[in-house]
Design brief:
By secondary structure, the protein is mostly beta strands. The chain has no helices and six strands.
Length: about 90
Amino acid sequence: MIEDLGIFFGPNRPFNVEAVLAGGMKVWGIFDRAYGDDMGVASTDPRFTCQLAEVLSVPVGAEVVIGMERFRVAVREPDGTGVISFKLEEIT
């Protein structure tokens, strides 16, 4: 059974932004740049979370544009519920 995750992701949902992925594919999801402290080094860890079914073909290394910022997918983290979180690296 496939869950309809449209209640969480879309243009009229709280905290959702549109991302443009490899090949011009547009996807709605939640962008987060949470503070992280890895072995004493403070940083922000950008992530984009969306429906897995919409991004099955997006590989590690793919470019993601959110607003005016460019990122690269560093890690794909599907959670087993039909949602995936991409750990992102900024492209400078």
